[in-house]
Model the fold of this input.
Amino acid sequence: MAYTIDGLSGNNTILHHCIAIPKHSDGKQSTSHDICINDHGPDTSIALTPPDTTYTRREGDTLPDITCTADCRPDCTFVWTRPDNTNFTVPPVLSLGQLDRSERGTYKCTARNIIGEATIATNGPGDSSVLAPQQDSVDVMENQTISDVTCSADCRPSCTYTWSKDGTDYPNPLSLSVATRNNAGQYTCSASNMVSQGTKDWNLIVRFPPQILSLSYTAGGANVTENGPKSLICSVESFPPSTIQWFYKANGTVLLTSPDVLESTYTLTNAGCLDTGLYTCSVRNSVSTTTVTRDISINVLCEPRLDSRVLTDYEIKLSTSETLTIRAMFLSNPEPTYTWSFQGSPDTSVTTLVNGQDNFAINNRFITTNLSAVSVGTRTDIRESWFGVYNVTATNSQGSHTLRFTAVAKEKPPDPPYGGKAVCPCKDVAILMWMSGYNGGSTQKFTVGVRTEAQSDVTINRSIVISDPGLGEIVTATLAGLKADTKTFFTIYAVNDFGISSGFQEINCTTKG
Done:
């Protein structure tokens, strides 16, 4: 007999009615039976032989054939898919043979029949890693609260997760709690299973105001010799980067501005004595309106010299008995020592002046803030012999310099000559001698007035004009043409541009008969 099965459909389990018809039939049905047929797709029965899902091989090694099987009714067809998602073989056997590096990746086997299909594969996280919250970067202010960040990925088998930053590992989820400048930076989530590893980066940006980490010299200390260079370096911690400005503190002059930096160097290329002082590093950024500052000093070593910031009177005019005051003002660094000396005239010797001797006092002062070095010499009750040249020499480790002052008498008529004497050796000749007095601060000359005992008026002998040899020096004059055997009186006058001396006592002698 023959059996005919009707009504096949896509259901997994179907009850079909079966009729048996004999070969020599008289047209009557002989028997009938119910037959139950169970149809199904591959579902979870799909498997690999060998059962391994991960293979690690060197290039050139041979990979054994991998057979894909499934329990299907009706039978399944099989398709293998490459890592680039292209189908490349219909048989259930994956045969790669000798391996090339280009063949690495995940291969999928799909079993399919009219009921359904199933796929078996091994896969790692790849680029499926995601973060929750879904932000690759967070930009916050320092000390602001941060939400936990959870890393997940599509893995089979399941992945393990590790966060890392700068060599330090953190558990998943990443829990930082509060943003600080120390925990800012890039964090990497690594998702891994036996197949592969995938990563996902998360960046924490923390904004904070500037802080000066260091302010120093690029080489050496604060000292620099005159005309030499000196460099200062200011290092800052901030985000975003800061604007760094350099000032000379004494007058607020802006020396250099460096925007958007974490470090700035200022170089004083040709240091001058007056560049000594404090230099300010001033820092600010967009996070705060407050400016952060710090000072550093530069000390320029220079030899003493005239302080050009002040006016100096090199000639002091005064009268006898007054007080002589000389202010010698130097610019010097470091503080100098001083030596005073005096010379009355070019042909006299130089005398060292000592504090407390010969009515002379010395008072020194040094002002570190402006390098003003002052030595004041004072001489009380000035005498004619103390008029002359006063030298002040300032000396420090860098060299020395001398300032020259002249003390001169105030202009007036000269003092009267003194110590006069007259001798008449002949009948018509007289020889006169006297001592030169103070010239009144101007060049003086001498002339002689003559009268006889019978005369009351003095006649100036204008043919006699004698130059001044110097204060206290002996002056002589010879007068001829006098009347014989006559007592004659002589008056000596000192004359300068301001007048004639007075008060000279007459001298006399009697000519021979």
The chain is about 0% helix and 55% strand.
